[in-house]
TrEMBL record:
Highest taxon above the source species: Bacteria
Protein name: Molybdopterin-dependent oxidoreductase
Source species: Nocardia callitridis
Transmembrane segments: 56-78, 119-139, 160-180, 192-211
Region annotation Disordered: where it falls in the sequence: 1-24
Keywords assigned by UniProt, alphabetized: Membrane, Transmembrane, Transmembrane helix
Oxidoreductase molybdopterin-binding domain boundaries: 319-452
Listed InterPro entries: Mopterin_OxRdtase_euk (IPR008335), OxRdtase_Mopterin-bd_dom (IPR000572), OxRdtase_Mopterin-bd_sf (IPR036374)
Amino acid sequence: MNSSNARGPDRQRSGATPVDDTADGFPARLWQALGRHRPPGLPTPRTWRSPLRGPWLTSVFGSVLLVSLPVVIVTGLLDYIAYGPQFGQAIPADVGWLHLPYFDWPTRPSWLFRLTEGLHVGLGIILVPVVLAKLWSVLPRLFAWPPARSIADVLERVSLLMLVGGIVFEMATGVLNIQYDYLFGFSFYTAHYYGAWVFIAGFLTHVFVKFPRMVRGLRSRSLRRELRTSRADTRPEPLDADGLVAASPTPATLSRRGALALVGGGSLLVAALTVGQTLGGFTRQAALLVPRGRSNGAGPHDFPVNRTAVAASIDPASTGATWRLRLTGGTDAVTLDRTMLARMHQHTASLPIACVEGWSTTQSWTGVRLRDLAALAGVPEPVSAQVISLERGGPFGRATLQGNQVAHPDSLLALRVNGADLSPDHGYPARVIVPALPGVHNTKWVESIEFRS
């Protein structure tokens, strides 16, 4: 490195980030004034001593997030559509110009929502170590002063604030919501939706601004060579304009190979502790971080429950011998008791339930096809159906089904699961089960169904 190139970065490390001395006018004077008044207690460039930080390591973490975060974003938006915002039953219901295109959510394959929600939640959790590592790698840039030296820098810093603030908010509240129901004093779903758009805007802007630098950073060093470099041979990267590389680095206590292994191992560990909640089966026993535990009892009802009968304030008397199912939509209402339903043609289907918290399970359900009930009600080809539960006061006490969801041959008003009558917590005396439908819309403790033509 020649002497003229060396002086710029050295001056940057010795104090405040340099401003453009050749510029004139009010903006230049503003940046210079900010540079002379550094807030007390703010870390200086010499605070950061790790020899690992630099454009290459930051670019490696950034490239992983560039590939994986769009999957989390797209699956999250698809899951919102799966809740049927066109019926006003997604949360939030009214999002103004931020609404997504409306279309009938498919019923095939039956595991579609299980896939999208599992990817959204599972991959989001797995990426937590990578996000933390990426934030660690750019800490010097986050605390640089002055925070901007031009209008372009202001835009970059705003996008960075939206990106970092958005992803920290989304991941922190998402993880907490999975483990603790109704923890927040605000609607998690509403905050998560709008927070997602803040993050998306910051993400797209940051990619637009930083992509060329990320490519240059990746090309600056050989991944194969870094994976062969020991801790003793680890050296800092050349000083960079963004101030990521330490001016006075300490000896390496970890190689870059070790840092990548640490972050990758952390993600693999998180995956091992959580992926069983989506895959189910024997893998569930290894999932220590599942929100509903690894076991829910014995026998045919040993699978997760999102909301128990007690939590839903279901009166046992209302589900006993006096319970009746009311079907409306045709000329006359039809009323059936459970014995009459059991005498109708029974259909059995193996279908998953997938929850917004990321857990899912596949069970064998037996009951009456919804399309048979629609025909009995006098609406053989309904365009939609509203299912109402005995549950009162909750946000999911009713759900609207699309016409294709009612017509699917495996869509059931289930009376039994795994060969046994439904338990109270699983929706006795009857519940809806529909392929690819979000779990909370597979309404339990069904009281009536209105088929709409």
